[in-house]
Design goal:
This protein has 245 residues and is an alpha/beta fold. It is 35% helix and 24% strand. Helix 3 crosses helix 4. The N terminus is likely disordered. The structure holds adenosine-5'-triphosphate and magnesium ion.
């Protein structure tokens, strides 16, 4: 396992009674949950459940219509919160006219990282991007673009990490590296995913949302106990999600 340390304390994450509408569409309906400092949690739910909206509120890109989100005791929109947050959006777009390495060094410099070149090399190797470090982003394959976007989101070893479908498009060896890397970080993590096998290895806890509200939360062990003996976890989750419509 690759172990990375930062010297900042991982904060709690709290969403309290958040409602968010897009016009007439109610995306989040009185949503509440909490992650303790250093807790790693998978955010599950069917398409349109409100996962990406939740993450956007937590990183300060959207503001709730009602209720509030907090990173420790900070507002997500505050400068201090932005400094300690790492966020991978679902449609991340690195600078297309810069190379992979240039993107990492540029964002790393903006984030105030001391040894940008060293950190860049570490991430390039972890994500198997060495072959493409000089390639312009506009020419990358979808998976390699995702690897770069992920690297950019965590280059500053943030104590709080929000990742929206981080392993989408990644080949299996890279998925393994990313899982080990994330497991070795000292941070509070909320990761949305549709891949249960990944959820189980990335997180200690699951928050399942549907129609913008929490429908279930607990540990993965609790989730497994809801199924029949030897029932795959995918099947348990599918049944739960179908039952709520
Ligand atoms: N910009 C927008 N304008 C209008 N409606 C939106 C917008 N973004 C999201 N929505 C709606 O809000 C709801 C929640 O969307 P959201 O993207 O948060 O879901 P999700 O759980 O991330 O889904 P997916 O698994 O497909 O990524 C959906 O009904 C969606 O159609
Ligand atoms: Mg989404």
């Amino acid at each position: 396992m690759i172990t990375v340390t930062n010297n900042q304390v991982a904060p709690s994450i709290e969403v309290s009674n958040v409602t968010k509408k897009y016009g007439n569409v109610v995306a989040l309906k009185n949503l509440s949950f909490r992650l303790e400092p250093g807790e790693r949690c998978a955010l599950l739910g069917p398409n349109g459940a409100g996962k990406s909206t939740t993450l956007k509120i937590l990183v300060g890109l959207l503001t709730p219509d009602l209720g509030e989100a907090k990173i420790g005791n900070m507002e997500p929109t505050s400068e201090e919160a932005r400094r300690i947050i790492g966020y991978l959006p679902e449609d991340a777009s690195p600078y297309r006219t810069l190379s992979v390495r240039e993107n990492l060094e540029y964002i790393g410099a903006l984030r105030g990282i001391e040894d940008v070149a060293l950190k860049t090399d570490k991430l390039i190797d972890m994500l198997k991007l060495r072959e493409y470090e000089k390639a312009k982003v506009g020419r990358l394959s979808r998976g390699n673009l995702q690897k770069l976007a992920l690297a950019l989101s965590i280059i500053h070893d943030p104590p709080v990490i929000f990742l929206d479908e981080p392993l989408n498009y990644l080949d299996i060896p890279t998925q393994e590296n990313v899982i080990s890397y994330l497991n070795g970080l000292n941070s509070t993590q909320l990761v949305s995913t549709h891949i249960m096998g990944v959820a189980g290895r990335l997180a200690d806890k699951v928050i399942m949302i549907s129609h913008g509200a929490v429908m279930w939360s607990g540990t993965l062990m609790d989730l497994k106990k809801l199924g029949h003996e030897d029932e795959p976890i995918e099947s348990v989750v599918a049944r739960m999600l179908v039952n709520v419509g």
